[in-house]
Design brief:
By secondary structure, this protein is α+β, with helices and mostly antiparallel strands. The chain is 31% helix and 25% strand. An eight-stranded antiparallel sheet has the order 14-13-10-11-12-15-21-19, sandwiched between helices. It has a five-stranded parallel sheet with strand order 3-2-1-4-5, sandwiched between helices. The chain has a four-stranded antiparallel sheet with strand order 6-9-7-8, covered by helices on one side. A hairpin with a 5-residue loop joins β16 and β17. Bound molecules: adenosine-5'-diphosphate. Adenosine-5'-diphosphate (ADP) binds next to β13 and β14.
């Protein structure tokens, strides 16, 4: 049984995990970087420990867990969550890693390797080139055709990803992607994918346990993005027939079974305008956007993660899981809309959250919090849940307006086009789309 959990993370995800611990009667310890302003987050934890300069030192995290008597580590998302080294170090130190086995993280860590694996399990991947021979890229690009996307094999966060519209741009884009990949991941291997125009990003929440059971908790549509990164997520995915969603769900479960997956994970697909879908990648952790699934399916994913990591069977059978109503999440960032949405640092002068039925805010800051430049500028997530998509959009609009009105600025859907720099915002007009 898990008694004490160390959380080497920050912001809203640290708060989210601490809340689950409190509800389960588990002691929680925040492990944080020394120069991070953790005053708000700390309140939710029973204890706190410094990790020194960063959140990324596996040795220090394990030492901190030992010193504090933690028998488990929840890595959250980002930082060490997808480093097989932490999962492996936990296995070695007899500490429960609340996540998948190191081998599954490793298997899915390389986009190229994940593509090979998925193909072996009959899951469709985007047509492209993912071979070892990097000198073959130019010739393979001709075969794949233009436009295409160059991606870093070790990629994540959109780094090392470049669109090549025509042959003449290939060389320069490949070189630039290599440099970026080397800098971000210390690995400059690249792969090519056919560039899908007007894609939709649809991902499935999956969950596995130690008995080899795997269920899915339906999909999330994360097509509204900036610079290839999600900003608005919703579930159910609008405009898809049940039949297509079921085929995708089956592919997601097959992908998870293919790596003997345990705990929470997400299988991401890209969907073409013709409704063909292809595997993009698998994220071997909890996602930022997990709350919309929690609201619509009526589950607590963090509690389930802790239970399953502690050896319990999955708390749900597939046939018991249902979607009820509609949920949308928007991410709230410390950015300057008047200056290309660049991250901004400073002290939060006024902070007041919206409330009311179907409104959930997962925040990592409060009034007076210092927002630095060292970490991701996401401050909070606003999640709305309602009976229908239309009602949900209305509720989200109201809650966004309340958020900014209470903080003394102006926003909300339609209140200022500056917020929506991304394609296809949810709108009342598209709400009735089939
Ligand atoms: P990362 O891991 O760096 O975030 P992903 O492979 O998950 O990269 O892709 C991020 C986003 O980029 C996707 O959600 C999608 O919007 C877009 N994208 C990825 N692959 C393609 C593709 N082959 N064609 C068009 N868009 C793509």
């Amino acid at each position: 049984m898990i008694r004490t959990i160390l959380v080497p993370n920050r912001g809203e995800i640290a708060v989210r995990i601490a809340r689950a611990c409190r509800e389960m009667g588990i002691r929680s310890i925040l492990a944080h970087a020394e120069h991070d302003d953790v005053r708000f987050v700390r309140r939710f934890f029973d204890d706190a420990v410094s990790l020194g300069a960063s959140y990324l030192d596996v040795g220090r995290v394990i030492d901190a867990a030992r010193t504090c008597g933690a028998d488990a580590i929840h890595p959250g998302y980002g930082f060490l969550s997808e480093r097989p080294e932490l999962a492996a170090a936990c296995e070695e130190a007899d500490i429960v890693f609340i996540g998948p086995r190191a081998a599954s993280i490793e298997a899915m860590g390389s986009k190229a390797h994940a593509r090979h694996l998925m193909q072996r399990h009959g899951v469709p991947v985007v047509p492209g080139y993912d071979g070892e021979d990097q000198t073959a890229l130019a010739a393979e690009a001709e075969r794949v055709g233009f436009p295409l996307l160059v991606k870093a094999s070790a990629g994540g966060g959109g780094k090392g990803m470049k669109i090549v519209r025509e042959r003449g741009e290939l060389r320069a884009q490949v070189e630039s992607a290599r440099r970026e990949a080397m800098k971000a991941f210390g690995d400059d291997r690249l792969l090519l994918e056919k560039y899908i125009e007007e894609p939709r990003h649809v991902e499935f929440q999956i969950f596995g346990d130690a008995r080899g059971e795997v269920v899915h908790l339906f999909e999330r549509d994360c097509s509204i993005q900036r610079r290839h990164q999600k900003v608005v997520e919703e579930t159910p995915a609008p405009r898809y027939a049940d039949e297509l969603r079921q085929r995708m769900a089956q592919a997601a479960v097959a992908a998870a079974r293919g790596v003997d997956y345990r705990n929470a994970g997400t299988v991401e697909f890209i969907v073409t305008p013709e409704n063909d879908f292809y595997f993009l990648e698998m994220n071997t952790r909890l996602q930022v956007e997990h709350p919309i699934t929690e609201q619509v399916v009526g589950v607590d994913l963090v509690r389930a993660q802790i239970d399953v990591a502690g050896g319990k069977p999955l708390p749900w059978r597939q046939e018991e899981l249902r979607q009820r109503g509609h949920a949308i999440e928007v991410r709230v960032y410390a950015e300057d809309p008047d200056d290309r949405f660049l991250p901004r640092s400073g002290t939060i002068g006024v902070y007041a959250e919206p409330a009311g039925p179907g409104v959930r805010v997962d925040a990592g800051v409060a009034q007076g919090s210092e927002v630095g430049v060292s970490f991701d500028p996401m401050l909070a997530k606003l999640v709305c849940h309602a009976e229908s998509r239309d009602a949900c959009i209305g509720r989200l609009d109201r809650a966004l307006r309340d958020f900014t009105r209470r903080c003394g600025t102006r926003s909300g859907i339609g209140a200022g086009p500056r917020f929506w720099t991304c394609p296809r915002p949810p709108s009342r007009r598209s709400a009735s789309a089939p």
